[in-house]
Design goal:
This is NMT1/THI5 like domain protein. This protein is α/β, with parallel strands linked by helices. The protein is 42% helix and 15% strand.
Length: 340
Amino acid sequence: MIKHPRWLALLICSLLLFTAGCGNVQKEASNEGEQSPAGSPAQQSDVTLMLDWTANTNHTGLYAARDLGYYEEEGLNVSIVQPGAGGTDAMVAAGQAEFGVSYQESVTLARTQDVPLVSIAAVIQHNTSGFAAPVDRNMKTAADFEGKKYGGWGSPVEEAVMKSMMDQEGADVSKVQMINLGDADYFTAVKRDIDFAWIFYAWTGIEAELRGEPLDMIYVKDYSEALDYYTPVLVTSEDLIAQQPELVKAFMRATAKGYQYAIDQPEAAAALLSKAVPELDQELVLASQKWLSPKYQDDAARWGEQKAEVWKGYADWMFERELLDKQIEADQAFTNDFLP
């Protein structure tokens, strides 16, 4: 299941590990990442790509790039791995993984802690997350959160987002009962403990459709442009960009091809992901892929494109609500320079 990331708690733990001695241990640059004059790789470079969560259709383009040989064509031997105990962001910042899957929320917080993460592509162009409830709870707008039980992971951002939405409708967030569910299954929780939760529609929403358990979905982006942030994103470290820019370019050329494949051929891409990760429900993967494929690029000029106003808008929103200790330089948090 794609679960909305418990990004704040996990990132704070990761940052503590990073600043306490995980260290900025960037792998030494070697001639493995050098390119021949013709632009073809001199030899294979081993690259670690760390996911944010268990594999799902947010990641299809990455598996496509690996299994269709796009990374190999660029001279990259890419290993796709699950998140480490220290968290993906900290591992990437410390050079223990060259690339990772993260979120604009967590990159923004990391930048305030001087953790040198940089977003190099938006996986999905618009925010597909929101608050979801079974239709029998009759929750059509944010005002309907009043008097209901919300199941989350105990992050300050949850209440801040909820409050900003409810304020627009004259509703009171203090009338929402907050329940910390951790990693509990959404479908079990709404039958037993809660009325609504924060989900990504592309997975949990599609699963609800397949189960015949329809949802009311209230997308956060519909309430504020600032909440239409990039989630997820691909990240790397400032050190890797400085030391091995050609490796980053090669990775992004192949990755962009992988996501283009997922955009153009959702059924084949779904089959590829199911083969790579056989424990996933094949029916869910296919339905999710069909829903998500048009949303990777959406209205952007190219897949992965990021806008400064999106980064600044969300950082300002977080700062105004005291979710950040200081402002960030938004144009340092992301780059489009490595997109083909």
